[in-house]
């Protein structure tokens, strides 16, 4: 039986994701910027929350955790290495060790770069990857704590997932990220088509997430360091992939 996915807008441009397994009546929230809209969504759907997964410690991903856990009794799971900066954890998550939630063996993926200790969570049977602020829709997170090499390694790990994986990232940043991608390659038809679709979705106030990994690999500059077109646009035809990524990330910081 497939999993149900609910996307809950929070704060100005954050998302909480809720995954429901009808076979076991298990319900998991990923990141909780604000408990109120999440509790409302759970009530409307008649779901009882059992687990909360945390990608990283930034306040706009965890501020609602304590209230939501208190209201539902859900288990709180996050990075063991980052526990001092997270709400009190019920269970530690470590890269390379699966979490067993409902019928899923959830793969915990090291995703440092935006922060050190950032995690991503991959539900292989459902084809869902919750990436927080690592791989984002048409972009990647700013490097607040980690290095370009760490983020490049993170994105390489995530890019190795199956192409039909749906990338569930933490913010509604797609259009802004797309403007940057088009600033590098304004004549790229794949980028132009994605921007048209993005603007149409936003015009009807629809989320632009989740996104198939295949689309990210075709259009996201931070996954295309080896692409000859992007290399030409950056004037870096003979550079290493890491150098191309680092330059693209630096330009995004100044954009």
Concise description?
The chain is an alpha/beta fold.
Characterization of the model:
This protein is α/β, with parallel strands linked by helices. 35% of the residues lie in helices and 24% in strands. The protein has nine helices and 14 strands. The protein has helices spanning 35-45, 59-62, 65-72, 148-159, 174-184, 189-203, 213-219, 228-234, 241-254; strands spanning 4-10, 14-21, 26-30, 51-53, 75-79, 91-93, 99-101, 104-110, 119-123, 128-132, 135-136, 139-140, 166-169, 211-212. The strands form three sheets. The chain has a six-stranded mixed sheet with strand order 1-2-3-4-5-6, covered by helices on one side. Strand 9 and strand 10 form a beta hairpin. Helix 1 runs parallel beside helix 3 (65-72). The termini are far apart.
What features would you highlight for this structure?
255 residues, alpha/beta, six-stranded mixed beta sheet, 35% helix, globular
Topology:
Layout: E1 4-10, E2 14-21, E3 26-30, H1 35-45, E4 51-53, H2 59-62, H3 65-72, E5 75-79, E6 91-93, E7 99-101, E8 104-110, E9 119-123, E10 128-132, E11 135-136, E12 139-140, H4 148-159, E13 166-169, H5 174-184, H6 189-203, E14 211-212, H7 213-219, H8 228-234, H9 241-254
Parallel strand pairs: 3-4, 4-5, 5-6, 10-13
Antiparallel strand pairs: 1-2, 2-3, 7-8, 8-9, 9-10, 11-12, 13-14
């Amino acid at each position: 039986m497939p999993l149900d996915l609910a996307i809950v807008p929070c704060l100005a441009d954050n998302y909480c994701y809720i995954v429901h397994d009808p076979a076991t009546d298990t319900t998991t929230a990923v990141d909780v910027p604000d408990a109120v809209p999440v509790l409302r969504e759970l009530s409307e759907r008649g779901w009882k929350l059992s687990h909360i997964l945390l990608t990283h410690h930034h306040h706009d991903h965890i501020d609602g955790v304590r209230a939501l856990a208190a209201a539902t009794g859900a288990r709180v799971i996050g990075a063991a290495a980052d526990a001092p900066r997270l709400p009190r954890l019920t269970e530690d998550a470590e890269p390379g060790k699966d979490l067993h939630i409902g019928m899923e063996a959830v793969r915990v993926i090291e995703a440092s770069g935006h922060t050190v200790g950032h995690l991503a969570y991959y539900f292989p049977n459902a084809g869902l990857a919750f990436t927080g602020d690592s791989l984002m829709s048409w972009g990647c997170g700013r490097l607040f704590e980690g290095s370009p090499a760490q983020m490049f390694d993170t994105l390489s790990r995530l890019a190795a997932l199956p192409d039909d994986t749906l990338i569930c990232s933490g913010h509604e940043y797609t259009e802004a990220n797309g403007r940057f991608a088009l600033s590098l390659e304004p004549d790229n038809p794949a980028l132009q088509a994605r921007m048209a679709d993005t603007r149409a979705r936003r015009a009807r106030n629809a989320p632009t997430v989740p996104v198939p990994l295949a689309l990210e690999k075709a259009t996201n500059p931070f996954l295309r360091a080896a692409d000859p077109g992007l290399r030409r646009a950056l004037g870096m035809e003979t550079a290493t992939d890491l150098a191309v990524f680092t330059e693209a990330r630096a330009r995004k910081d100044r954009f």
